[in-house]
């Protein structure tokens, strides 16, 4: 699947900003205000969400401000839709 | 013969007899605007002092320059109520060899009075002072540059320190009355450009919330108070500095007006909210250890029924006459509450020190009804947890926890649970709140604590309550 640069989310408290760029393999770089306690889980969730959307090659930079799983899933999905042009909600 | 105690800072330090290894003290009435700590410690460093114990009533973001003085060996020990910002972050990562000793405001007062915390030289900022040392936190001339109101946390230092230096940014003609600190307790007076930026007194912990969740929590807290059995003519009340506990005052006021109920006094950190109720005749007296904003500081300057008290008179466990013993209701905030009702207000869920003990354990233990107001989650950080990261206020003194998911009542206070349930409030088991939080955020990984002790928490009776370990990145 072709990946273009795309972004979703904000840097507000409780949100996460997800930037997607072309990459080789799935590479997730996470900065999080709750990294010590939840970094592992957040990275796993980002990877799982992208893989679920059929994205296996991308560089992802995520800046997390304590977002809950539902928010993370929504922001990753939105960024993926923008990056691939494939509307998972419509198609 | 006309006397004066006015000298330069360097001369005051020389006259004090300060030596390496001694204890110096400061108050935090200017909070985030304080200029005295940095000014004095920089001078001590310049004069070559080493190995000093800095005993402040509290420290905040503005005290980051202490990091360099710690690295250079000028300051090797700290006692305080709180730490914030970069200084707290560095200390949490193991900056100091000796652990920081944390005490509550009442605990610090007791420790100074008993001699357990002996102060060699106190450096106390004052908004006005005469040349003999009569000092006040209130402005007394048109040249006044600052205002901090109550000097409650400085009073034990002034009374018990071996040597007392007042720093002021407004030297006024004798006699500077009414005074907070008496000339009899003061050895030197130093005139400086500024002791503090008064506009920053209400920075730091205090927020006036427009957050709808805070407002919901505030309404719930007010309902708890009104239906607790303690809301009756002549009750007394203290509120903490959290957005929700400040907002709760607004809703309590409405019920006081409706039911024709008056409070005998409000205690503690006094805010503009409390001053308003006092001026409306709803609160008889204000008992003020710390003026939390400019309105409170201006009120104490002009109102005889708005009374300054020392940290000892406010919250000492040893002193039978301290005000907390007469306190009916206190509303407090929390970083974390656990299923045993223990509270942490000092160490963040990331293991980094980011708060202050304050009067939390003092008021929780001695009040008739203590109410903790906190959301279930702050972002992904849980506030109701299986076990607090650091123990500050033991659960035995905590009666009610108000969250947006329901109200938990300490099993030791079944009569309160009954009254609240009868009033139609949603009472939940605190274990269910902790479980609810976990169901939303998942199971957090353990914090990367190291083996080094960076902080020791003393309880208000002078015993070690908990240890804080360093965080490893």
Précis, in short:
The complex is a heterodimer of chains A (91) and B (473). With 91 residues, chain A is an alpha+beta fold.
CATH superfamily of the largest domain in chain B: Glutaconate Coenzyme A-transferase
Average of the residue pLDDT scores of chain B? 95
Question: Biggest interface, which chains?
Answer: A-B, 15 and 16 residues
- Extract low-pLDDT stretches of chain B: none
Oligomer: heterodimer
Main β-sheet of chain B: number of strands, strand sense, barrel status?
A: 9 strands, mixed
Q: What are the low-pLDDT stretches of chain A, counting only 5+ consecutive residues below 50? A: none
Taken as a percent bin, the fraction of beta residues of chain B is: 15-25%
Computed CA radius of gyration of chain A, to the nearest angstrom: 12 Å
Description of the structure:
The complex is a heterodimer of chains A (91) and B (473). Chain A is built from 2 helices and 4 strands; from the N terminus they run βββαβα. Chain A has 91 residues and is of the alpha+beta class. In chain A, helix 1 (35-52) crosses helix 2 (69-84). The mean pLDDT of chain A is 95. Chain A is globular, with a radius of gyration of 12 Å. Chain B is of the alpha/beta class and 473 residues long. In chain B, 28% of the residues lie in helices and 24% in strands. Chain B has 14 helices and 26 strands. A 9-stranded mixed β-sheet of chain B has the order 10-9-6-1-2-3-5-25-26. In chain B, strands 14-13-12-11-15-19-23-24 form an 8-stranded mixed β-sheet, sandwiched between helices. In chain B, helix 7 packs across helix 8 (243-259). The A-B interface holds A 13-14, 33-34, 36-41, 65-69 and B 349-351, 377-381, 440-442, 444-445, 447-448, 471.
């Amino acid at each position: 699947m072709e990946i273009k640069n795309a972004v979703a989310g904000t840097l507000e408290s409780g949100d996460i900003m997800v930037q997607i760029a072309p990459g080789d393999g799935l590479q997730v770089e996470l900065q999080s205000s709750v990294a010590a306690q939840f970094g592992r889980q957040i990275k796993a969730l980002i990877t799982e969400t992208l893989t679920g959307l059929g994205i296996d090659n991308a560089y992802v930079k995520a800046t997390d401000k304590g977002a809950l799983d539902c928010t993370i899933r929504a922001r990753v999905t939105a960024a993926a839709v923008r990056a691939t042009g494939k509307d998972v909600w419509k198609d | 013969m006309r006397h004066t105690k006015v000298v330069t800072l360097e001369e005051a330090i020389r006259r004090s007899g300060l030596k390496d290894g001694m204890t110096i003290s400061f108050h935090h009435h200017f909070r985030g605007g304080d200029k005295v700590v940095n000014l004095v410690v920089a001078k001590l460093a310049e004069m070559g002092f080493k190995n000093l114990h800095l005993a402040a009533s509290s420290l905040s973001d503005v005290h980051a320059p202490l990091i360099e003085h710690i690295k250079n060996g000028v300051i090797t020990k700290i006692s305080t109520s709180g730490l914030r910002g970069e200084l707290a972050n560095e200390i949490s990562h193991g900056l100091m060899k000796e652990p920081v000793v944390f005490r509550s405001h009442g605990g610090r007062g007791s420790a100074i009075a008993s001699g357990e915390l002996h102060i060699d030289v106190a450096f106390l900022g004052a908004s006005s002072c005469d040349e003999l040392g009569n000092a006040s936190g209130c402005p007394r001339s048109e040249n006044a540059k600052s205002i901090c109101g109550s000097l409650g946390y400085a009073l034990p230092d002034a009374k018990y320190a071996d040597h007392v230096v007042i720093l002021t940014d407004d030297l006024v003609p004798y006699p500077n009355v009414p005074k907070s600190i008496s000339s009899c307790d003061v050895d030197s007076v130093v005139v400086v450009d500024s002791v503090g930026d008064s506009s920053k007194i209400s920075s730091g912990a205090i927020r006036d919330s427009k957050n709808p969740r805070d407002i919901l929590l505030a309404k719930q807290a007010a309902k708890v108070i009104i239906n607790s059995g303690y809301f009756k003519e002549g009750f007394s009340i203290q509120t903490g500095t959290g957005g929700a506990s400040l907002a709760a005052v607004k809703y309590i006021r409405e019920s006081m007006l409706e039911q024709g109920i008056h409070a005998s006094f409000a205690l503690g950190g006094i805010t503009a909210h409390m001053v308003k109720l006092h001026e409306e005749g709803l609160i008889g007296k204000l008992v003020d250890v710390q003026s939390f904003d400019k309105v409170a500081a201006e009120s104490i300057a002009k109102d005889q029924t708005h009374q300054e008290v020392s940290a000892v008179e406010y919250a000492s466990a040893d002193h039978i006459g301290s005000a907390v013993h007469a306190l009916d209701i206190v509303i407090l905030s929390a970083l974390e509450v656990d299923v045993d009702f223990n509270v942490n207000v000092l160490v963040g869920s990331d293991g980094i020190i980011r708060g202050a003990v304050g009067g939390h354990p003092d008021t929780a233990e001695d009040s008739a009804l203590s109410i903790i107001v906190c959301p279930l989650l702050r972002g992904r950080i849980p506030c109701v947890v299986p076990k607090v990261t650091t123990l500050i206020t033991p659960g035995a003194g905590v009666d009610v926890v108000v969250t947006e998911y329901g109200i938990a009542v300490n099993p030791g206070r079944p009569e309160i649970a009954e009254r609240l349930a009868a009033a139609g409030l949603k009472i939940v088991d605190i274990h269910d709140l902790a479980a609810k939080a976990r169901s939303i955020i998942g199971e957090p990984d353990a914090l990367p604590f190291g083996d080094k002790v960076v902080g020791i928490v003393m309880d208000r009776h002078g015993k070690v309550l908990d240890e804080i370990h360093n965080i490893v990145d």
